Structure formats: C-alpha cells, structure tokens
Amino acid sequence: MSMRTSWADSVSAAENAAAGGGGNRSTYVPPHLRNRSASSDSLAALPQGGPDPVNAAPTGGNRWAGPRNDYNRSGYIGGSGGRGGGWNNRNGGWDRGRDREVNPFGDDDNTEQASGEPENTGINFDAYEDIPVETSGDNVPPPVNTFADIDLGDALNENIRRCKYVRPTPVQRHTIPISLAGRDLMACAQTGSGKTAAFCFPIISGIMRGQSAQRAPRMPRTACPLALILSPTRELSSQIHDEAKKFAYQTGVKVVVAYGGAPISQQLRELERGVDILVATPGRLVDLLERARVSLQMIRYLALDEADRMLDMGFEPQIRKIVQQMDMPPPGLRQTMLFSATFPKEIQRLASDFLSNYIFLAVGRVGSSTDLIVQRVEYVHETDKRSHLMDLLHAQKANGSHGKVKLGASDLCVNVNMAFLSPSLVVNKQALTLVFVETKKGADSLEYWLCSNGFPATTIHGDRTQQEREYALRSFKSGNTPILVATDVAARGLDIPHVAHVVNFDLPNDIDDYVHRIGRTGRAGKSGLATAFFNENNSSLVRSLSELMQEANQEVPAWLSRFAAKASYGGGKNRRGGGRFGGRDFRRDSSFSRGGADHYGGGNMSGGYGATSGYGAGGGYGASGYGGSYGPGVTSAWD
DNA sequence: AAAAAAC
Questions:
Q1: How far from chain centre, in Å, is Cα A463?
Q2: N or C, which terminus of chain A has less Cβ within 10 Å?
Q3: Which residues, in sequence order, are CB contacts of A7 under 8 Å at separation 6+?
Q4: Smallest CA–C1' separation from A466: which nucleotide?
C-alpha cells in the first residue's frame, strides 16, 4: 500500500541522480565516469575489479576507455601469461579492453534524447501492482524498491538509465538482492516481466567487483568465461546477448554469444579476444568445449533461462554434460540461477541437482499468464482453420491496422504507446500477429497460403537456415511482414514489441507451452490478445486450459467448460500442481520431500488473491493456510 | 508425435 509512494520517491530520486550527473555538457565526461563521487563509490575502492577511473580516460575524451586492468584474470588466457603475450597479438593483448565497443544505445554524440520522446521501451508499472510473491528458502534477502537501493556500480547504473529503466520490476526487486547475496535461485516470473535484466545486472556487477587475483592455468586458445548463460533457442541467446551488451557497455565486462547455424569462425575470434559472460545454446557450447576452445573452470555464475525447457527430456543430457561432466565448479563454488515463467515440479526436482541451498521465488499469477492478455478460445474444426484465420485477419485489418482488435463490446487498444510515438513511427509500428502451428511443414504451408491470399507473412522454424530465421524475425519486428507463422522455436523468451495478437492455430499439447506462447504478447505491462483454435484434437489440454483461463480472470466459453467437465481423464500430466501461482516450491510439497538433503527454511506469500477458484480438486493448497503467514526474517514487498 | 539444439 505504501508501494506507490516509495516507487514515486524512487523515480524522482533516480531522475535527480541522472540529471545531476549528466548535466554538464561543456566538458565531456564519459558516461561511466559520471555520477562518480569519491566517497560513495565503492567500486572505485576495489583494487582491480572494475573500470579504472584514473587510467580509463586520462584525457577525459576517450569514449572507448574503460578497460579492465586485470586482463589476465579471465577470458582469454594468453599463452605467455605476460603483458601482451597472447598468441592472438593483433591488438597487443594488453589493450583488449580498449577494443572498439559499439555503442548499443546509438547515442554516440551523447546528447540526451529530445524531451517528449516516447519511452517505448518502458514498462507499465501500474500493471504490476498487487502481484503475488512467494519466496522460500533460508534467510531470504528482502527485496529492494529502487535501483538506487542497490550498489550495482556507476557504469551499470548509467546503462540502466540509458535503457530508461526507472524502477525495478517485481522480479528484479526480489532477484537482484538474492543474487547479490551470492545465493542460488530458482525464479518463476511471468512472461515479459524483466527476467533477463534480473540475472544480467547482478552478474555484470559481480564480475566488475570480482577479485582479480585468481590465477588461470595456461591454456592457449581456451576461453575461460566467468559467467555462462544458457538458453534453448538461437534467437533467444542472440536476444540475451544484445541485452547484456547494453547493460555491460563500458563496464569492461565482455559479453560473447555462441550458437549453431552461424559460422563458428567469428565466434571463435570473439572468444579469443576474451570473454567474461558467455551466452550460448547447448549444442554449440558442447562443440566448443570438446574442441577445448572454451573451459568452464572459471565459471562463477551459471544462469539457465527458460530453465524448465533446458531440463526437459530433449535438453537434459546436454545440460548435464555441460554443468556436471565438464570442468565447471560444483554447486556451492558457483552461483546458479534458474529462470522461467513455468516450473513443473518434476523439473524442479531435476533442477535441484544443480543448486545449493537455493531460494525459490515466484512472482506473478497463474503460470505467469497475466491478465493483461485477453484470452479467447474458439471452436474451429481442423478443416476450417485457414478460413477462420483469414476471417480474423480481415477483421483486424478492417478495424484499422494500427492495433485495434475488436473484442465484442469493448475495443482493446493493443498499441498502448501509439499516442506517444511520432507520426513517422506510427506508420511502421503496426500491430503484429504471431501465429503458432504444430509442425515445420505446417508453418511453411500456412505461410504460403497466407501470402497467396494477400497477407504478408513469413515463417520461422528449425528447418530454415539461420539466415532465413533471422531475416524472418527482423522482417516481422520491423512490420515489413506483420504476420509471422512459427513453431515452438518462437514460443519462449523472444521479446517482440508490438505483437498485438497471438493465434494458436494449432494448440500445443502442454499447458506450459501455451503460457509461453501467449506470453509473446502483453509484455512489459502492455495488453494483448491471444486467440486459440480448439477442437477435439486438443482434448488433453482442455482441463488445464479452462483452469488457467479462470485463474487469469478470463471468460471461459460455456462449451469449453462443458467439454472440460466431461473430459474423462481427470489428472494427467497436464494437471498443474494445484496452486494459483505459476510456480510453487516443490520442497514444500510433502510428496517430494525425502530425507534431509534439501534445505528449506520456510515460505512466505503475499499478494492479493481471493477465494480459491477453479481448482476444486486441486492440490489441497487453498485450505492449508499458507496465505498471509510469514516466516521469520522475511517481509513481503506487497504488504 | 513434434520441436529444439553441432558439424
């Protein structure tokens, strides 16, 4: 209840800080040196960790400054171990920190954006009020309210400001202090709520202030990153890399990405030039490990994005190999953070192998599907799907291509920021429609059919070349091709602004996949629409779907409820654990607790949820009196 | 049964 006040305070505090530091234009001060006051800068006091304020910009004019002076500590290990002694001596080795670092913000002239400029990357924070939060584990560090409450370091703070992140999102408020405290973490937070930054900030900050003294063994041509971030698709790794580069700009922390389908030579070159944070997909990383071009022995941070996917049947062996069978330090000697919007209990149990005395955190409602997404289910026979899709697209077009989707009586304006965009931008930022299908062949044929019928569509799936995939995504994002037909390759993590409508042309078999798919819209507090085509082929999903919709306060069609009621298989693997949260710590479930191996220090919940709804036969959760009980030493952010 | 992920 005091949240609004404290957030408002923090906003003005952040704005003052930003204005105070960047105000003087007469003398150029590199961004990473602004806001630096000798007394308050703990990073400057560290011996060798972060950028060196003295050497970084002796003339005050070198914007490529900000090198690390501990080049030998991490990343590429030069053959001779001496100054400039790397085999890759093109740049003299010693000055790799001075390599040209492309400005990811594109504001090289360092002028502030014109006032009145839209904040189209901003998060709609009002949408995140009353979000329930659950934590469990030993000694959970309390959440912070502002970025200023956390000492992330000046360079990182400057990048946060340039990203226009004024306030931390709920998952960031909870995650960052946990992570800075060095704790392992399993975090479950709704789609589009800022998870990437939540694990990137502490990693970058931790590397900046890390001790430099660690001696790395001699391993020519072997890169030794300090942090590893794994994700299940190439595009997602690429996206995380782009984000991380922004956050790490001029911090001296080097971020490199490696994934398949792209020439390995360039990735090798990047690795040779030094890497602190490696973002990768599993296959290419295993390749690099087997070639001994990467060693994991220096890993201090391991983050798995979409962690439940990374640990499901298809990926688990590769992940085990990377995490357990190569040279990565074991749990306890590294910090491990797992993130996803969904976390089935079976996967949680698998995941606990990788964790040490971890904290479980759940932020958000119902498997992370937010009520910002309007979910519709329509009964459509298999043979009618194409014409039905056509009807939807025509209706959308007729309603104005700029993001208004007719929703019965009320119009849902799906392009929230449109009013603030300059006219020239509005033209290009039309509402985008993402259509999910089951198979790669199905994607190709639907794309062809749409194009033949005058709808500009493209497609992304695993049978296309990486070039084609990336081109399709770009073309979709730009609005050039406002319809994208996709397989599950695009279901998770991709942050595509202006996706107004997600169509589940073919529903997935797993409710968690549905949650991730519809999460491509309604991001960053904006609203969105998700339409599903349902028929008898989807009966395995009907129960969990109707339950999910009820919990997200969605209108469940009567026919769907009837269908769900008569569906004979009551439980099945699609049943959720019976909680109203997307995640619940499996350690709190008695059927999972065996022996004393797990550390579990109690649980805490808070948030505005009412009477149990929809989970009549659920997991015996509502009755057990968790709500409102607070464990020792932990306070909720929402009370 | 499908999708993803290395060459």
A1: 25
A2: N
A3: A125, A145, A146, A167
A4: B5
Partnered with residue A189 across adjacent β-strands are: A363
Q: How far is the CA of A312 from the C1' of B4 (A)?
A: 11
What angle separates helix A154-162 from helix A3-22, to the nearest 10 degrees? Answer: 100
Q: Which pLDDT value is given to residue A416? A: 31
**Which nucleotide is at minimal CA–C1' distance from A267?**
B6
Task: Of A387, A466, A396, give the one whose Cα is nearest residue A433.
Answer: A396
What pLDDT shows up at residue A523?
80
d(CA A584, CA A547): 17
> Cα–Cα distances in Å, from A193 out to A158, A264, A495?
21, 32, 11
> DSSP states of A620-638 as a string?
S-GGG--TT---TT---TT
User: Chunked in runs of 10, what are the mean pLDDT values of chain A (639 residues)?
Assistant: 30 34 30 31 32 32 33 38 30 44 77 40 55 91 93 92 92 95 93 90 94 62 96 97 96 97 96 97 97 97 96 95 97 97 92 96 66 90 95 81 38 33 42 96 96 95 97 96 96 92 96 93 83 94 91 90 78 47 74 44 43 27 24 20
How many Å from the CA of A265 to C1' of B6? 14
Amino acid A195: pLDDT: 92
User: What's the CA–C1' distance between A440 and B3, in Å?
Assistant: 8
Give start and end residues of each alpha helix (H) in A63-153. none
How far is A385 from A505, CA to CA, in rounded Å? 7
Work out the angle between the directed axes of helices A542-551 and A558-566 (0-180°, nearest 10). 130
Residue A152 identity (one-letter amino acid)? L
Distance A53 CA to B2 C1' (A): 54
With H, G, I as helix, E, B as strand and everything else as coil, classify residue A412: strand
- Nucleotide nearest to A508 in CA–C1' terms: B2
CA of A1 to C1' of B7 (A): 56
Tokens of A389: 């899709």
Which positions of chain B lie under 7 Å from any protein Cβ? 1-7
Tell me the CA–C1' distance in angstroms for A59 and B6: 46
CA–CA separation, A265 vs A564, rounded Å?
Answer: 53
Residue A106: the pLDDT is 81
Please list the residues that pair with A302 across neighbouring strands. Answer: A228, A336
d(CA A332, CA A355): 8
* Angstrom distance (rounded) from CA A309 to CA A513: 10
Q: Which residues are within 7 Å of strand B by their Cβ atom?
A: A 232-235, 259-262, 264, 280-287, 290, 312-315, 318, 438-442, 461-463, 487-489, 509
A501, β-bridge pairs: A433, A529
State the residue for tokens 């959970």: A140
Nearest residue to B3 (CA, C1')?
Answer: A488
The Cα–Cα gap between A138 and A151 comes to 23
Single-letter amino acid, residue A601: G
Residue linked to tokens 């060095």: A182
